[in-house]
Amino acid sequence: MDAKKVLEIASLLISKKNLNDLINEILFSIRELVNADAGSIYLYDDEKDELTFKYTQNDSLDISFNEFTIPVDENSIAGYCALNKEAFTIDDVYKIPDNYPFKFNNDFDVLSGYRTKSMLLIPIFDAKNNLISVLQLINKKVVSFGEKVRDFENEVISFSSEDLELVKSLSGIIGVSLENSILYENIENMFEGFIKASVQAVESRDPITKGHTERVYRITHKIIEEMDKDEEFFPDFKMRDIDWKILKYATLLHDFGKIGVREAVLMKPKKLYDDQFEKLKMKARLYACVNNLTKEEYQDLLNDLIRANEPSLLESELSEKIDKYYKVKFKDCYGEELELLDDNEYKQLSVKKGTLTNEERKEIESHVLHTYEYLNKIPWTKELKEVPKIACLHHEKLDGSGYPFGLKSEEIHIFGKVMAVADIFDALTAKDRPYKRAVPIDIALKIIKEEADKEKLDKKIVEFFITKKIYNMV
Ligand SMILES: [Fe+2]
Ligand SMILES: [Fe+2]
């Protein structure tokens, strides 16, 4: 029976990748194997030479615990086990002989009313035989596994030498599973660090939208979390564990491609770039001089150019003036012919709303394609391979009028549809854009609803976002 059980545990442990899940499983399976009432796992940090109390289970007590560290020395039971790298049992921790170097610290028992009695300690090694953990089993009991111990004196017995051998026989597989899991977690942490650095890199190029990525992530995550819970609104929507990771990476990297867009275009507060506008003012002054314009006439011309350069709506009266100025040619004092407005200046000042020409708008829009291309260079695992595609869906519209692919509703992943709502909501309500005032929430919701009515955004998601007031939950 034991051999079969040991094999079962071994295959179960190998299948767990997540460190917390694995630790939980190790404790549960090994406790069950030797019928231990409680157990704890310490992880060893070789750089600091200390043990971190990582997890504990106890059938008799409902306990919450905090992580803490202890030095690897002879003063504590776990520290002694780590230092001497040997497994041992103790029949009763309150009766440790005086000639033993360690003492039992009974703080936990005093606080909780628990009675720790027998113990089994085993060091766990990685494949290279380096210590990585200490496993501590507490109180072998005579009552069934899972049942509470009520009478510690009579229901708790000592761990036997067979128990010790049984746990030892599994320590190799525990070590390898823990090592893999820690490695996996380290790689994941490293990757998350890379994502954080990427977000910072994007936002430091475009400080105007600072915080946008993080906010879009929080809003998207909240909407999805609520959708996952709400069986009435979304009966068929269920998140798998891996989906949360896909969602996180795709959302945090959704604007990563902005790294490939020129900074001047990303942060264009006026229709003309500063150096262009300075040059235009000089030309206007020269034009006024050679044509003997009065000071007032010159000032009027200058005011028109300043007004037209603003991102606000270009009124038709001003637009006509700009058309007129475009045709003006004049000669400087040396007879060289000049245009008051050249083709580029005219094109830029004629922008009806905002500051971007069509070419510049296309360049900004290209950020999603850059996102796709850059993220595709990452060798994603099979489970995460959809991240690049999902990351670049946030500007697609349900009716096919979005970019970069012009996808229709049924072709857009649900995460993309939710991200689109979060992205627009944040763009409208963000308070940190100096040239654009934040839109009040009720107006922003109205705009989003109109977009849904026009088949641009997903109606059900928008309705859910508004009626559940998810914007207030983040
Ligand atoms: Fe975007
Ligand atoms: Fe965005």
Could you characterize what this model shows?
This protein has 19 helices and nine strands. With 474 residues, the chain is α+β, with helices and mostly antiparallel strands. The protein has three domains: 2-185, Beta-Lactamase (2-Layer Sandwich); 206-264 and 363-472, Hypothetical protein af1432; 286-355, no CATH class. The strands form two sheets. Strands 1, 2, 3, 4, 5, 6 and 7 form a seven-stranded antiparallel β-sheet that branches. It has a two-stranded antiparallel ribbon with strand order 8-9. α2 runs antiparallel to α6, α10 packs antiparallel against α11 (295-308) and α17 runs antiparallel to α18 (441-453). The chain is elongated and about 110 Å long. The mean pLDDT is 94. Residues 254-255, 367-368, 394-395 line the site of one fe (ii) ion.
The major sheet is characterized as: 7 strands, antiparallel
Strand content: 5-15%
**Bound ligands:** fe (ii) ion
Q: Which structural class best describes the helix and strand composition?
A: alpha+beta
Q: How many H/I helical runs?
A: 19
Do you know the CATH architecture of the largest domain?
2-Layer Sandwich
N-to-C order of helices and strands: HHEEEHEHEEHEHHHHHHHEEHHHHHHH
Q: Mind telling me the CATH class of the largest domain?
A: Alpha Beta
Give the domain tally. 3
